[in-house]
Design brief:
Shape of chain A: globular
Largest interface: A-B, 59 and 50 residues
Order of helices and strands of chain B: HHHHHEEHHHEEEEE
Number of strands of chain B: 7
Helix content of chain B: 40-55%
Largest sheet of chain A: 2 strands, antiparallel
Oligomer: heterodimer
Number of strands of chain A: 3
Distance between the termini of chain B: 49 Å
Structural class of chain A: alpha+beta
Number of domains of chain A: 2
Strand content of chain B: 5-15%
Strand order of the largest sheet of chain A: 2-3
Strand content of chain A: 15-25%
Shape of chain B: extended
Distance between the termini of chain A: 30 Å
Chain lengths: 86, 206
């Protein structure tokens, strides 16, 4: 989810081959990012990850340094935990 | 609270009470839809319609929890002497009330003429993007152009009080995807786990 408008996101998503819905939080600007308390004062979202289980409960929150790649390990671990794989 | 009816004060408090539960805009839209039928029972009904926690909502309304914020906005309105809907500010000029299109056009063209003559003036696009940026929405006031006219956007300031926490219900939302479909978080309930990834901007790493 990003606070960019749809035309920019479409251009970007085309080039990245993502397989999940890319959502625009452009109008009312940053409204959903704000609900999750990850809207920065300059109007863009933090680099943040939320894992939400099937009951709609937040199971994991990671607000990352905006310039860093958060990596996948922690997310995989929490998803395994939710699904009872381990 | 002169010049404002009791109902509109209560409606504003209801919007703030909804804000506490992450439903400010939803309440905002309903209030405009249902106006002027906005007495207290009607407001309770709207809160119910939005699925708000009624105990919290009623407590907030009964205690007038957000009266200080409302009063702050009203004080600002007094200070700026802005009472007309709509009031438009173009390059520091205040235009009160709905004017014929021709008036706006003249004022905008004058402003554009000035900006092309002066170096360092903000372009209309810059002014608009500043006006739309959320920082503008939370700021106490924002100075535009050389007229130094503070712009006041009637959105509660500060952060929502319902900062999401692990173990709590995730705030619901509906947004448009790049495939132009509407995606609602609660549609996944009972079906799938959801990984929600917020990114600062397109063309940065996912």
């Amino acid at each position: 989810m990003l606070t960019d408008n749809l035309p920019s996101l479409k251009a970007w998503a085309k080039g990245t081959n993502v397989s999940f819905p890319v959502l625009s939080d452009f109008w009312p600007h940053g409204h959903t990012s704000l609900k999750y308390d990850v809207l920065r004062s300059e109007g863009v979202a933090e680099r943040a990850i939320f894992v939400i289980d099937k009951k709609g409960i937040i199971r994991y929150i990671d607000v990352h340094d905006i310039n860093e790649d958060p990596g996948m390990n922690a997310i995989i671990r929490i998803l395994e935990e939710i699904e009872g794989v381990k | 609270m002169r010049k404002y009816s009791h109902d509109s004060s209560n409606a504003a408090l209801a919007a703030w009470a909804a804000w506490d539960q992450g439903k400010f805009w939803e309440m905002h839209d309903l209030l405009f839809e249902k106006a002027p039928e906005l007495n207290r029972p009607a407001l309770d009904e709207l809160a119910r319609e939005l699925g708000l926690d009624m105990a919290k909502f009623k407590k907030s309304m009964d205690n007038q929890t957000h009266l200080p914020e409302l009063q702050k906005n009203l004080d600002k309105i007094h200070e700026l002497d802005v009472w007309s809907t709509p009031t438009t500010i173009i390059n520091g000029r205040i235009i009160k009330g709905a004017q014929p299109y021709e008036n706006y056009r003249k004022i905008i063209e004058e402003a554009l003429g000035q900006s092309s003559q002066r170096k360092g003036r903000s372009s209309i696009l810059e002014i608009l993007s500043k006006a739309l940026a959320p920082s503008g929405a939370y700021a106490e006031s924002k100075v535009f152009g050389e007229g130094k006219v503070p712009l006041y956007v009637n959105v509660p300031d500060g952060k929502p009080t319902n900062e999401p926490k692990v173990g709590e219900q995730a705030p619901d939302f509906t947004l448009t995807s790049v495939e132009d479909s509407r995606v609602t978080l609660s549609d996944y309930r009972g079906k799938k786990n959801v990984l929600l990834s917020f990114l600062p901007a397109a063309f940065t790493p996912v």
